[in-house]
User: Fold this.
Amino acid sequence: MPTPTEIRLSKDKRLLTVAFGAEEVYEISSELLRVESPSAEVQGHDPSQKKLVRDKANVEIVGIEPVGNYAVRLVFDDGHDTGIFSWEVLHRLGSQADALMIAYRQAVEAAS
Assistant:
């Protein structure tokens, strides 16, 4: 399990940089973090319950709170604050960000 060596929020609060050593540095948009939040509110209790969260292109991260030595809780300006982002989740979101955003945009288009 990789552990972040750095977590940094951009000045505009829309980009979270997560470094897992010098070799793996990911910039994850606040939109992706919000729509893929690991919270039950978004993910449900099994994959069939996952909700499609829309209109989060301009969401900002207004808080980052440590959760033990294994995760952070992100607070978004739309009031969402129940997602616990483990190091594993942040690594997955960072390493798969492009594919996840493509799939998200396709899901939004298909649902329209």
